[in-house]
Amino acid sequence: MGFPKDFLWGGATAANQYEGGYLSGGKGLSTLDAITGGNKDQPRMITFKTKEGEIKEVTRSESLPEGAVGYVDPEKYYPSHVATDFYHHYKEDIALFAEMGFKCFRLSISWARICPKGTDEINEEGLKFYEAVFDECLKYGIEPVVTINHFDIPMYLADHYDGWSNRKVIDYFLFFCETIFTRYKEKVKYWMTFNEINFLRSWTQIGIHSSEAQSKYQAVHHLFVASAKAVQLGHQINPDFQIGMMVAYIPSYPMTSRPEDVLEALQFNREQEFYIDVQVKGYYPAHKIKQFEREGITIVKEPEDDAIIAAGTVDYIGFSYYMSTASTANPENVKYVGGNQMPAVKNPYLEESEWGWAVDPLGLRISLARLYDRYNVPLFIVENGFGAVDELTIDGQIIDDYRIDYFARHIAAMKDAVELDGVDLIGYTPWGCIDVVSSGTGEMKKRYGFIYVDMDDNGHGSLKRMKKKSFDWYKQVIASNGENLAK
Predict the structure, then answer these.
(1) In Å, what is the CA distance from 145 to each residue of 77, 393, 436?
(2) Mean pLDDT, to the nearest integer, of 284-305?
(3) pLDDT score recorded for residue 16
(4) DSSP labels for 89-129?
(5) Which are the contacts of 187, defined by CB distance < 8 A and separation ≥ 6?
């Protein structure tokens, strides 16, 4: 049994954390270009200009004042500007992925590289760059898996349209989609519309200035309509396209068997599954409609929106899995630890990473079983990984047995989900297959990759690529189709 013969083993990255090439080749500014570096104790900041012209900053999860615009301060360090420079190293990197045996490579396209302002202006040089990347992948038999939008928006749309709160942005996004679907219709089969759609919020990710729930959910509605229209458009351009959605999935267990804790876990999980419900089932779930009624949130819809969402359901569910959490009706009695984009309750039965993320391989099997039972569509694990400080030995090696152990246990859980639970699993693309800038903290110190990149938290380094011990281990895993997990 085991994994299917055509299982897509690979790795995952994002343009704003990996690509670099800031303003190179006609690229425009994106919101992430105005986000500084940080660490687990110091938050990343948005630098901006007020409408009065003052230069200020707020944390990346906060809102900008009305009328404020993004600003790149030449005195500050912005990790996205160089990142780990895939823009100038793509041939070298893809050759390393091929050496590991990748069957696929998940990457995102920078909207601002194709449409510098996010509008209907096309940058041909940007199109040629991704065409060269896809050709390089295909040369080695690597299937590109493309995230259309990964955690940013062209800064012009944020500053002049208030981002996704403005319905006009749907039209600009569809222009971008039509451009890349048409250009790459013979080179890319697998697409995802929005990365971790349940985590999209604030000026940083969706360009909105308000932090009110009304503004957030109105923007989310526009994202749903845009995704559904993109699915329909993509299938018209090439019926063989497989177009999925992508959610950050963090299963929550009740802290105890008290019914109150069980209810808290139900509500936590439903908040994540709301985003999947809309994009897979094609309608808003009843519990969310009731929440909107209670909180006085009114989603402004065009008459055809519900029909569009119903007709534009996705072909598969892509999701990230890093950790689980726990839920309790008495939050004052528990300890909180680090989490993926949110605080998480400490589970006393689980170990944690240095950044406080719970390590829960069995939670991955639980997630796969839960999602497949609930939706009965193919699943694709498009992010999973272990952030850690990697040390170079005297002879230049990186012995990352901790990472190998993490992956071995998670892949074993995946295999159980396929063999024992009957889950239809398309593939597996571990996060940061090569070292990239951390999205949450802006650090380089927090590394995920099988390939080490010489770059530090302040943007200093040669950008030299070096194989870690996990490189050869993952090569062995792929060659055996997941059967050989031995160190």
Answers:
(1) 30, 34, 18
(2) 98
(3) 97
(4) HHHHHHHHHHHHT-SEEEEE--HHHHSTTSSS---HHHHHH
(5) 131, 134, 135, 138, 144
Find the catalytic residue in 143, 264, 273, 383.
383
Contacts of 151 (CB under 8 A, 6+ apart): 14, 16, 32, 195, 196, 200, 204, 205, 439
Rounded distance, CA 452 to CA 96, Å?
A: 12
**Cα 226 to Cα 197: distance, rounded to the nearest angstrom:** 12
Amino acid identity at 379: L
**How many CA atoms does the CB half-sphere of 69 hold within 13 Å?**
12
**Rounded Cα distance, 56 and 64, in Å:** 10
- Contact (Cβ atoms closer than 8 angstroms) between residue 196 and residue 246: yes
Above 70 in pLDDT, residue 340? no
CB atoms within 10 A of CB 238: 17
**Cβ neighbours around 186 below 10 Å, total:** 10
Residue 100 CA: distances (Å) to CA of 95, 295, 348, 471: 9, 51, 36, 7
Domains and CATH numbers, the chain: 8-30+81-479 (3.20.20.80)
Rounded Cα distance between 417 and 440, Å, is 29
**Residues 130, 142 contacting (CB under 8 angstroms):** no
Is the confidence at residue 80, as pLDDT, over 80?
yes
Between 239 and 352, whose confidence is greater? 239
Residue 327 bridge partners (DSSP): 254
Q: What token pair was written down for 163?
A: 């981002």
Query: How far is it, in rounded angstroms, from Cα 154 to Cα 23?
Result: 12
Whole-Å CA distances, 59 to 22, 38, 77, 175, 205: 22, 10, 15, 31, 13
pLDDT above 90: residue 335:
no
Assess whether 383 carries a catalytic annotation: yes
Mean pLDDT along residues 446-458: 97
Q: Give the Cα separation of 487 and 485 in Å (integer).
A: 7
The Cα-based distances of 373 to 32, 65, 361, 368 in angstroms read 37, 44, 19, 8
Q: What is the pTM (predicted TM-score) of this model?
A: 0.97
User: Minimal CA–CA distance to 390: which of 467, 338, 321?
Assistant: 467
Average pLDDT over the chain reads: 96
Taking only the tens place, the pLDDT of each residue in 178-200 is 999 999 999 999 999 999 999 99
- For residue 396, count other CB atoms closer than 10 A to its CB: 8
For residue 27 the two structure tokens come to 């690229």
b/e burial code for range 440-469 (CB count within 10 A of at least 16 → b) = bbbbbebbbbbbbbebebeeeeeeebebbb
CA distance 471 to 23: 32
Q: Which two tokens stand for residue 254?
A: 């009740």
